[in-house]
Amino acid sequence: MKTVDRCGLTIAAILSVSALTTPVTATAQTDLHPEVAALAKLPVVDSSSLRRFVSNLAGKSGRLLARFVLPAHSLTVPPLAHNLNYTSKLIPTVQEIAGASNFGKFSLITMKSFGEKIAGSVGTYRVGYWPEEKGRLRSEAYENPDGFIEVTPENQNMLVSTHFKLQDFLTHDQESVWPKYIVLREPLLDKLELVIQDLERHGVRAGGMKVISGFRTPDYNTALGDESGRARDSRHQFGDAADVIIDNDGDGRMDDLNRDGRVNFADVRVVGVGLYHSSGPRGPFAHIDVRGSRARWVRGGQVASRHHKSKSHKSTRTASRSSKRNSSD
Q1: What is the pLDDT of residues 128-180, one digit of tens each?
Q2: Which of 7, 10, 78, 193 satisfies CB 3.0 to 4.6 Å to 61 for a cystine?
Q3: Alpha helices, DSSP H only, in the chain?
Q4: Nearest Cα to 305, choosing from 319, 321, 317?
């Protein structure tokens, strides 16, 4: 497991923002362990520093509205170890930062650490086991996720970027189980927003981009077996892949993006990322991921070629081009 969260946020930065948004009273600090009270008194960044801090977190697209951080590293301090209540009182799961974005409310979301998964479940939500846990660590890209974002009936409609909500990335299973948990990486959100921006610069309406498959738990990913076409070590399990359609008219299917009067594979080419020759119940769709290398799949998700490192992006839509047939990686 990595010891630093992907955002590079330090405990000082997180607690400083927390102090701006959810002040802890002196009485509350007295009720906590003295070491916790000391952490709560860390210097608070001024508003101009906060704006610079948040603008750097908004991604290349400038449209991210959330960042995901691990529980405070202070939990490794002996008096705090094994007692999550102390930190949770200081750092709520979702912290809104008023005025930090021009596009909506910006939030810091504290994840549950991967270590809180017990016997294949996070709480009552079944997730299964990642490839590394099964001894199939192919590369660093397939290490266990850092943590899980908790999704509840109350926060599922929360925007995490201009066009996407937490619920867009939920696995399509365990409908009655709450809370649910997802793995989601900010670079994927950023790339989805960049693809929308690039399409619209080229005259293609793309604000209706819909995620038809976001995070998939390992259990769900393998539930239908190899014949499902889902790659065994699919990137969907790592929160950095999504299957999408452009559905501006709201009919649940890919739109006629090239305006030839038909909806087919040619419309997926307009999106220009992961290309699927097959069609699901919603018609043709595109696969977008941020694996960092080019890839090609055949039926059953077996990798035919994935050894070329992607070059500097000439444009968003050519950044991770791949061709797939009857697969869902």
Answers
A1: 999 999 999 989 999 999 999 999 999 999 999 999 999 999 999 999 999 99
A2: 193
A3: 11-21, 26-31, 34-40, 47-57, 84-90, 186-201, 218-222, 265-271
A4: 321
Query: Residue 198 CA to chain centroid, in angstroms?
Result: 20
What's the CA gap between 65 and 197, in Å, rounded?
16
Q: Closest by alpha carbon to 32, among 87, 104, 100, 109? A: 87
pTM: 0.75
Rounded CA separation 316/273 (Å): 9
Crossing angle of helices 47-57 and 11-21, rounded to 10°: 120
Contacts of 137 (CB under 8 A, 6+ apart): 131, 143
CA dihedral sign of residues 248, 155, 218, 164:
positive
CA distances to 19, 46, 161, 256 from 53, in Å = 15, 10, 17, 40
Token pair of 206 as six digits? 């793309």
Whole-number Å distance between alpha carbons of 107 and 309: 33
Half-sphere exposure of 40 (CA within 13 A, CB side): 23
State the Cα–Cα distance between residues 72 and 18, nearest whole angstrom: 12
Who's near 225: CB < 8 A, 6+ residues apart? Answer: none
54 CB-near residues (< 8 Å, 6+ apart): 97, 100, 101, 106
Instruction: Tell me the residue type at 12.
Output: A
From the list 287, 279, 288, 276, the residue with the least C-alpha distance to 325 is 276
